[in-house]
Every structure is written in structure tokens, then in C-alpha cells.
Amino acid sequence: MGGGGRIASVTDIEVETITLSRSREAGVILAGSEATIPDLLRLVALPVFAWAAVRDVKTRRVSSAVWIPLAFLGSVLLVWDGWLAWNAEATVWAYEFLLPTAVSLGFVVPIAYLFWWFGGFGGADAKALLVLALLFPTYPHYEIGSMTFPLTVTPIETFSFTILTNAVVIGIAIPIALVVANALAGRFNGVMFIGWPVSWDRVPETHGRLLEDPSGRSRGGLDLDALRMYLRWRGLTLEDVRERPDRYRDPATLPDEPNPPTDGAVDADVRSDGGAAVADDEVSEAAEADASDDDPWGAEAFLEDIPGTAYGTSPAELRTGLEVLAEKETVWISPGTPFLVPVFLGLVLALIYGDVLVGTLF
């Protein structure tokens, strides 16, 4: 203990010793930063997750092929770290590798699977968390000058769980940001914490879900991906629907050979193999007589013709959404949370600071 200096705790000494021993075993010094080779290779995840987050915002679609190389890299680095820990002291193997790895693979992986199974995560979100559980089971250590990152550690150093809790904290902050933005704009209503208003002409290029029905605001409504599927299937644009809603409510105007509906993605490869809007003189009197008033907009016909369920959309939801979009100039939508954005931000925050939740509470 020096004059005015603090007494180093046992934990501080252990963390410093482990960090130095791991770095020396790997024998790597790069640009003034000392870290193991596996820890340096893990930084490859940063640009990949950044790209995936941008892709998630723009299209809500991330190919499974993105995760395969990272999963392979994570498996290799996991074995590598295990070998380094096995050749270090017994406490390093047991407490710095085996325990956090068991939590990562035995807890984070099942959480990702269960949330996907119950619809809380999309497929890409679940795969991203599975990859993180493999790639970051233990806390990495990066020394730059006199500083070691992450700045804080947790009692059980499971880094993938730290990333997950950071992502959840960031995800919780999104509704708060929506409320603040809507309040500052003077938009006070029951859905201001989950949505915002957009002009009708932005809807075809927007992801999310309508928060309106003809009577006013609602907490759930038509998925905009399902809307795009319907319009592509019929060979229509939203502008067509708004110009002549009475005509397109009539199921007699449904095309004989609809177009492929795609998966509703904004950037989908849309083909017109038929399905063009039926001209007035092509709707025969017999077709008009046979048309059922029980299926306005041809909603049931659409859902029966396409493979799958159009994201769980019901005929009633589709009809209600079309009625809203046919009339209103501005509609409220819930953009949802592209979860790969909080995951990426949670990863960056974890690498720099550590666990925000633990750091705040303790």
C-alpha cells in the first residue's frame, strides 16, 4: 500500500493475473494492445453484426449464411480457449473457462431457442444469440496502454449473457425514446409508446404493423409485409387501391393467375407472371353475379391461395388494414424492434464497459 493509494482487492489481483497469464500464453502484442489470439479473432464479429443490424433495419431479413462462418469460428476459438485454460492453473480452467462456458451454452442457448419458439425472437435474432453463445462464452480481455477492456466484469464471467442483458436494456429504452419523441411533437394517444405516424405513400417501403382500424387507434393490426404480399399477388399498388377502393373491394376483380406474393420484404424480387389488375371491361356480368359479398377485397381468396399464413394475418385484419389505407392520409404504425440493433449495440457496450445492468445495480 503506497501513500494515498488504494488497497488492491483479491479480485483485482486475480483478474489482472488471469489477464496477463492468458496474454503471455498466447504471446500476442498488436498495436499496443495485449490480448490472446482468440480474443483478437473474436473482434471479427463486430463488422458482421454491424452489417446485420443495418440489414435488419432496412429489410428485416438476414440470411442464415451470415451466421455459419461465425459459428464455425466460435467453435474453433472455444476449443482453443479450453486448451489455454487447461494448461493454466486449475482455478483458471474451472472458474474462468468451464463455469462461464457452461452458463453460455446451457443457459443462453436455450433462452434463444425458447424465445424463437414462442415468437419473441425472429429466426435471425435467435441465430445471432446462438452464435454469440459460441463466440463469446468467456470474458475477452483487451489491454490498451494502462487500460483493460471491458472495464468491468461480473461474478460469473459469461460474456454472451452480458451481451444479452445489455441488448435487453437497450431494447427497453426504445419505447421510452418513442414516448419522448411523440410527446415533443405533441402526439399524445394510447399507442405513442409503441408507434409513430407515417404518410400513406411511405407504407409500401416501411416495416412494421398498423396500429389503426377504421374506428381509431388499436394495439395491433395488419402486418405491412403481409400487405405487400397481397398487393403483389393482385398486381396492384397501394396508389391503385386508394384511387378505386370500391372496385378492388369486389372479389370479381381478382386475377385469374395471381403473381407470386414473395415474402413481403421491401427488396424482394417482384415478378409479374399474370396478376395484373383486371380491367373494367374484363369483369364479366357472370363474374360479378357470382362474386361473393362475404369476401371483400378477396382477402380469404388470397390467404387460401398462398403458401403459409402471411405472418399469421387473418382475413379480417387484411380487410381492416385495407380500409384504413384506402382512406387515411397518415397512419400510425408500430415499427417493432429490429432486435439485431440492440444486440449489436449490446456487444459494443459489453466490449467497452461490460455489463450495464450489473454495473448500475452494484
Helix content: 40-55%
Which segments are poorly predicted (pLDDT under 50) over 5 or more consecutive residues? 1-33, 284-292
Chain-averaged pLDDT: 82
What is the alpha-carbon Rg in Å?
27 Å
Q: How far is it from the N-terminal to the C-terminal residue, by CA?
A: 25 Å
Query: What is the overall silhouette?
Result: elongated
Main sheet strand line-up: 1-2-3-4
Describe the structure.
This protein is α+β, with helices and mostly antiparallel strands and 362 residues long. It has 2 domains: 10-174 and 340-361, Four Helix Bundle (Hemerythrin (Met), subunit A) (Up-down Bundle); 195-334, no CATH class. It is 53% helix and 7% strand. It contains 15 helices and 9 strands. It has helices at residues 10-26, 37-42, 45-59, 67-86, 90-117, 123-135, 159-184, 224-234, 238-243, 245-249, 285-290, 299-305, 315-327, 340-352, 356-361, and strands spanning 29-30, 33-34, 142-144, 147-149, 196-199, 209-210, 212-213, 216-217, 330-334. A 4-stranded antiparallel β-sheet has the order 1-2-3-4, with no helix packed on it. Strand 1 (29-30) and strand 2 (33-34) form a beta hairpin. Helix 4 runs parallel beside helix 6 and helix 7 crosses helix 14. The longest helix has 28 residues, at 90-117. The two termini are 25 Å apart. Mean pLDDT is 82; it is low at 1-33 and 284-292. Residues 279-297 have a biased composition (Acidic residues). It is found in: Cell membrane. Pfam families: Arc_PepC_II, Peptidase_A24. It comes from Natronorubrum sediminis. InterPro entries: Preflagellin_Peptidase (IPR052218), Preflagellin_peptidase_C (IPR009655), Prepilin_IV_endopep_pep (IPR000045).
